[in-house]
Every structure is written in structure tokens, then in C-alpha cells.
Amino acid sequence: MWIDKEYAQARYNICKSCNNFIPAVHLCRQCGCYMKLKVKLISAECLLKKWGKYAVAKLDTVKKKLIKTNKYTIKVQDINGNVKKY
Ligand code: SF4
Known about the structure:
The chain has helices spanning 5-16, 35-38; strands at 21-22, 27-28, 64-69, 74-78, 83-85. By secondary structure, the protein is α+β, with helices and mostly antiparallel strands. It has one domain.
């Protein structure tokens, strides 16, 4: 139901840099959603595909670290150096 805090933050950061984001009220002009909540829902996605569903994503902050985020992907590296895209 809820994604890890790091993923939610990564999504929110994408919204914050989007022209459709209204920072004063944390709303998206495209979907009308309150983004502080929407970014936390596993099944949520940006209507413009700037971020997607990370249903299988489970970030263990001790064993893995977020290494890159862009419009479409989040890359996570585990302690063995393996990189996985979401
Ligand atoms: S959900 Fe998508 S369109 Fe809406 S503010 Fe976030 S990135 Fe922009």
C-alpha cells in the first residue's frame, strides 16, 4: 500500500521540478491530487509518466542506497554493488 520514504521523496522531488506542480498547495494541475499523499501510494503514477508504479520496490535503507533518480527511473544499489532500476 505505501512505498518506502526514500521512493516517496524521490517522486516528490520530480513533482517539485514539474511545471504542473503548485508548490503553495502541493497539488498537481494534471490530476488535481495532493502530491504529499499521492507519492506515498504504491499504485500511484504520474499521468505524464514522469514517475511510475514501484509496486515491487522495497528499499532497505541499511542495505541499499538510492543512487540516481530521473524522470522515469530510480536506480538503487545494494551492498554487493548490484544496481536495480525501478
Ligand atoms: S504527478 Fe506528474 S504532472 Fe503532476 S506534478 Fe507530479 S510530475 Fe508533474
